[in-house]
Design brief:
Largest interface: A-B, 27 and 25 residues
Shape of chain B: globular
Distance between the termini of chain B: 35 Å
Radius of gyration of chain B: 21 Å
Strand content of chain B: 25-35%
Radius of gyration of chain A: 15 Å
CATH architecture of chain A: 2-Layer Sandwich
Order of helices and strands of chain A: EEEHEEE
Helix content of chain A: under 10%
Order of helices and strands of chain B: HEHEEHHEHEHEEHEEEEHEEEEHEEEHH
Helix content of chain B: 25-40%
CATH superfamily of chain A: Folate-binding superfamily
Oligomer: heterodimer
Distance between the termini of chain A: 24 Å
Shape of chain A: globular
Strand order of the largest sheet of chain A: 3-4-5-6
Chain lengths: 99, 417
């Protein structure tokens, strides 16, 4: 059971308030019409699926309903911290934001 | 291999059962094998067995980092069925079902395959339309499948609450009488024993740390315990860890690893003699021969390799079971565990060639791999023997995620396994 920090509410909350939404930082191809099938398939379906640190997208579904990123270890399940969209993983934190 | 028989049992009784032979050898690995199979679960062991038996390739090693059948083979809810919607998957799972039906005799090992039938419940009109469609598709593919109404379901499972006042009333179900359950450990042990008897080396406690390649072709594996082991062809059957092995070989898979939890209750007297599954309230349940209720449901939504999940998922699972069976509301749960399942976007497996020559993957079975164990092994053995995907495996190439030819079982059967 996780306690996840929401960087918009500025609080640690129970996992059940959140939904995981897959890996973070998946960049949509800039020019989809000119993608090859390989490039488009890679974007849609192929994943790094790492064992270890993983940046992933979560949504505070039963809270502020905002999307943000979490850095979490997929082996130990330890959460390093959360950061807002547009920020970088090294800004992951578990406190310090104002709601 | 000493054959097991009633007479053998009697003979060993004379010596107080103290002289049974070891079930398999524990050999040191050779320097070179014709085929190396990474992963000693049910699918890997079945692959080794069929390679030796059907294709006469016996210079085979199965390399397992833990112990045989210690991963998802020992962590699933043992349900076996083949009532899938699309032709490609129906044929694959039905192939497995036919092998299940003769498996105990074939392996000379009792896998306790019990064809007690599986119900897939429908709770909405759309569920019932989907069930009707799937049942018809099954029958066209020669798979036994029947659509039942509420009355028909109630007759098969009298203890289930089929009253219309429920929040999710049971409007009917699909019913596959040939489906059922099997003893999961016995499947791994049976295949291991039979494969070993045909000369396959089962190497336990040996972790693969790298895939060796030369000029874009796989030539062997590097192991932590025994160093390099060379192989003509390499087959990876490592379920949740497939992504890790693919990374060693330098490519990615359309797979994400998730925890899938299951639990068993305290043993109770025989009360449920079939398997009940529901996609809509999302849970499945059967009763083992030991008497405990075997219960499972959905994956934890986040990626994970930790073989455990969150408590809230267990809570949802049991909510679903109590919704169907209020009679079980006070049964106490005994044990709970998690396995790491390798889910694909279309909920269908990958049995495939890869970008690396002589390297093959059998993975992506997600939440429903156990039922396919014999078929998966049989088909993958043929793929490894011929060096290219066999007829049944062809639709399950990893490259379907580039061409777009997905086998979309997700809506049809991919939810509850």
């Amino acid at each position: 059971m996780f306690r996840i920090y929401c960087p918009y509410c500025g609080e640690l909350r129970e996992e059940e308030e959140f939904h995981p939404k897959g890996p973070a930082h998946l960049a949509r191809p800039a020019d989809p019409d000119n993608c090859t099938d390989e490039q488009w398939g890679d974007f849609l379906y192929f994943r790094d699926n790492p064992r270890g640190l993983h940046n992933e997208l979560w949504v505070h579904a039963l809270g502020c309903r905002k999307f943000f990123n979490v850095t979490r270890d997929t082996q130990t399940y330890l959460i390093k911290g959360s950061y807002r969209l547009g920020e970088s993983p090294d800004q992951a934190r578990t406190s310090g934001d104002q709601a | 291999m000493q054959r097991y028989s009633g007479f053998g049992l009697l003979r060993h009784a004379m010596s107080h059962h103290e002289n049974w032979q070891r079930v398999w050898r524990n050999p040191k690995p050779k320097k070179h094998y014709d085929v190396i199979i990474v992963g000693g679960g049910g699918h890997g062991l079945a692959t080794a067995y069929y390679l030796a038996k059907v294709h006469n390739i016996t210079n085979v090693a199965v390399i397992e980092k833990g112990y045989l059948g210690g991963g998802n083979t020992a962590r699933n809810t043992t349900i076996v069925r083949s009532n899938y919607l699309w032709d490609e998957s129906a044929l694959l799972y039905e192939h497995a079902m036919k092998l299940w039906e003769g498996l105990s005799q074939d392996l000379n090992y009792n896998v306790m395959f019990s064809q007690r039938g599986v119900l897939n419940l429908g709770h909405t009109l759309q569920d019932m339309r989907d069930i009707q469609r799937r049942v018809n598709a099954n029958r066209l593919n020669g798979i036994d499948s029947v659509a039942l109404d509420t009355q028909g379901v109630q007759e098969i499972v009298p203890i289930m609450d089929c009253t219309t006042s429920r929040r999710y009333p049971i409007l009917g179900a699909s019913w596959q009488p040939r489906a059922g359950v099997a003893r999961h450990d016995a499947v791994a042990w049976g295949y291991a024993r039979a494969a070993d008897a045909l000369g396959v080396d089962l190497i336990q406690q040996c972790e693969v740390t790298d895939i060796l390649t030369e000029d874009g072709a796989a030539t062997g594996v590097m192991t932590k315990e025994y160093g390099a082991i060379k192989g003509g062809r390499i087959g990876c059957v490592v379920a949740g860890n497939s992504g890790v092995l693919a990374k060693m070989a330098g490519f990615r898979l359309p797979i994400e690893s998730h925890p899938l939890q299951a639990l068993v209750s305290e043993p109770i007297r025989p009360i449920l003699d079939t398997v009940v599954m529901s996609n809509q309230v999302h849970g499945y349940i059967s009763q083992s021969d030991k008497g405990d209720l075997v219960i499972g449901a959905g994956i934890d939504g986040y990626n994970g390799y930790g073989q455990r999940g969150s408590y809230s998922t267990i809570e949802h699972t049991l909510q679903a079971i109590v919704e169907l069976f209020p009679i079980f509301s006070r049964v106490r749960m005994n044990r709970q565990w998690g396995g790491i399942v390798d889910t694909t976007p279309d909920a269908c497996p990958i049995i495939s060639e890869t970008p690396v020559e002589n390297l093959f993957f059998n993975c992506g079975w997600g939440t429903g791999g156990f039922k396919a164990t014999p078929g998966s092994g049989h088909v993958f053995a043929q793929t490894l023997a011929k060096g290219k995907a066999s007829e049944l495996a062809k639709p399950f190439s990893m490259f379907r995620f580039h061409t777009g030819a997905l086998v979309d079982e997700h809506g049809a059967a991919g939810v509850a396994h």
